[in-house]
C-alpha cells in the first residue's frame, strides 16, 4: 500500500487531469451504467451550533468503479469543521482509500483534502466548459475559502479569454490573503495578463461577471437577478445542506439552464434548489431541471456557441463519491506505477 500525504498528492494532481478524469467517468457511466456503483452517502451532523461551535458533519462516501479491466473500491471519509479556519486548518478534512475488489488489497491511502478541493473545482470546470460564454472575460469569486481556490483555477483553465478576477469575502483580509496566495501559487495566470481585484461588495464583484463562482455557507441568496448579467454562468458549490442557500429564487427562476452534478444527492442536499422548489412563489421546480452534468458531457444536452453566449445558466454541485473515486484512482495508479509516497505493508 502506498501512503500519500497532501504534498505528494499536490505534486501529481493537475486541474487538467481532474477535469479529464471526471469527463471520462461520465462517459463511462453513460456507456456502461453498471460499471460505476455509488450508494447515497451517509451524512451525520456533528457539533450543534452553540457559542463555541458551528454545526458540522461527518460523511462516508463509498464508490465501486470498473475501468474496463479491473474493479476498485474507493472510500472517502470527510469531516466538515466550520470552525477550522480559526485554527488555521481547512474546513473540509478528508482521507481516501483505494482497494482492489478482486483481492481486497488496499492499494493507496491518501490525504483527501486536496482531492476534494480539486474534484469539486473540476466539476465546475466541466460545467463552465459546456455552459459559459466561450468569450467570457470576467469571473467573480464569492467566498474565498479552500473550495474557492481551485474552483477559480478550474474556470481559468477552461476559459482562455478571462482577463479579470473579482474577489469578495465577508472578511476583506481573507480576500486579500486569497489574492496574494493565488498569484504566488499560480503565476502563469498573471503572466497571461489576468488581473485580480478585491471588491468591497458582492454587487461590485458580480455586476460585470461572465462567470460567477459561489462557495459559501450562506443561508439566503447572495444577489438578485437584476444585479448580474443576463447571460452569466454561475457555479454554486456551497449551500450543501437543505437550510443553506447561495442562489436566490429570482436567479434560479430566470435561468435558461439549470444543471446539477448528481440529482439523487441534490434532492437531499442542494439547499438552493430545494428551497426554490418548495417556494410556491418561485417559478422553478425540479421538473424544470435541464439535466445532469453527465448530459452535457455525453451530448444529451447541447448548447450552441450562440446559446452559451446569450443564455443564463446555473451549475449546482453537491458532489458524489464517484467523482472522488475517478480522481483518486488516477493518483493511486500513478503511485503504484512510480512508487510514489511511502510503501507500507499491512
- What is the 3D shape? globular
Point out poorly predicted stretches: none
DSSP, total strands = 16
Q: Tell me the CATH topology of the largest domain.
A: Rossmann fold
Helix-strand topology string: EHHEEEEEEHEHEHHEHEEHEHHEHHEHE
Judged by helices, strands and strand pairing, the structural class is alpha/beta
Query: What is the overall pLDDT average?
Result: 94
Terminal Cα span: 7 Å
Radius of gyration: 19 Å
Count of separate structural domains: 2
| CATH hierarchy: architecture of the largest domain | 3-Layer(aba) Sandwich
Oligomer: single chain
Percentage of residues in strands:
15-25%
Range of helix content: 25-40%
* CATH top level assignment of the largest domain: Alpha Beta
Give the full name of the CATH homologous superfamily of the largest domain. Answer: NAD(P)-binding Rossmann-like Domain
Biggest sheet features: 8 strands, mixed
The number of helices is: 13
What does the model show?
InterPro entries: NAD(P)-bd_dom_sf, ODC_Mu_crystall, ODC_N. It holds the Pfam family OCD_Mu_crystall. The chain is 38% helix and 23% strand. It is an alpha/beta fold and 346 residues long. It has two domains: 2-115 and 322-343, ornithine cyclodeaminase, domain 1; 123-319, NAD(P)-binding Rossmann-like Domain (Rossmann fold). Strands 1, 2, 3, 4, 5, 6, 7 and 16 form an eight-stranded mixed sheet that branches. A hairpin with a 5-residue loop joins strand 6 (92-100) and strand 7. The radius of gyration is 19 Å and the shape is globular. The model has no long low-confidence stretch (mean pLDDT 94).
Amino acid at each position: 500500500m502506498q501512503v500519500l500525504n497532501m504534498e505528494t498528492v499536490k505534486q501529481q494532481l493537475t486541474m487538467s487531469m481532474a477535469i479529464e478524469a471526471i469527463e471520462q467517468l461520465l462517459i463511462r457511466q453513460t456507456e456502461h451504467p453498471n460499471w460505476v456503483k455509488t450508494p447515497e452517502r451517509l451524512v451525520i451532523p456533528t457539533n450543534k451550533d452553540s457559542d463555541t461551535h458551528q454545526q458540522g458533519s461527518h460523511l462516508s462516501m463509498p464508490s465501486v468503479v470498473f475501468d474496463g479491466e479491473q474493479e476498485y473500491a474507493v472510500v472517502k471519509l470527510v469531516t466538515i469543521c466550520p470552525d477550522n479556519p480559526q485554527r488555521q486548518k481547512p474546513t473540509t478534512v478528508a482521507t481516501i482509500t483505494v482497494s482492489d475488489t478482486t483481492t481486497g488489497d488496499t492499494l493507496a491511502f491518501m490525504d483527501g483534502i486536496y482531492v476534494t478541493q480539486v474534484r469539486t473545482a473540476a466539476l465546475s470546470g466541466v460545467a463552465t466548459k459546456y455552459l459559459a460564454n466561450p468569450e467570457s472575460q470576467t469571473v467573480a469569486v464569492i467566498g474565498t475559502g479552500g473550495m474557492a481556490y481551485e474552483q477559480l483555477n478550474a474556470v481559468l483553465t477552461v476559459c482562455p479569454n478571462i482577463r479579470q478576477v473579482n474577489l469578495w469575502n465577508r472578511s476583506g483580509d481573507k480576500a486579500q490573503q486569497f489574492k496574494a496566495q493565488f498569484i504566488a501559487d499560480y503565476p502563469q495566470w498573471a503572466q497571461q495578463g489576468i488581473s485580480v481585484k478585491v471588491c468591497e461588495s458582492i454587487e461590485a464583484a458580480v455586476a460585470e461577471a461572465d462567470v460567477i463562482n459561489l462557495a459559501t455557507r450562506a443561508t439566503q441568496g447572495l444577489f438578485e437577478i437584476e444585479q448580474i448579467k443576463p447571460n452569466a454562468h454561475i457555479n454554486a458549490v456551497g449551500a450543501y445542506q437543505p437550510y443553506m442557500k447561495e442562489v436566490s429564487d429570482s436567479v434560479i427562476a430566470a435561468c435558461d439552464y439549470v444543471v446539477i452534478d448528481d440529482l439523487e444527492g441534490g434532492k437531499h442536499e442542494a439547499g438552493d434548489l430545494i428551497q426554490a422548489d418548495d417556494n410556491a412563489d418561485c417559478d422553478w421546480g425540479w421538473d424544470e431541471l435541464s439535466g445532469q452534468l453527465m448530459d452535457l458531457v455525453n451530448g444529451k444536452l447541447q448548447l450552441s456557441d450562440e446559446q452559451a453566449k446569450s443564455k443564463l445558466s446555473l451549475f449546482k454541485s453537491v458532489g458524489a463519491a464517484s467523482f472522488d473515486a475517478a480522481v483518486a484512482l488516477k493518483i493511486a495508479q500513478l503511485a503504484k506505477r512510480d512508487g510514489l509516497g511511502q510503501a507500507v505493508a499491512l
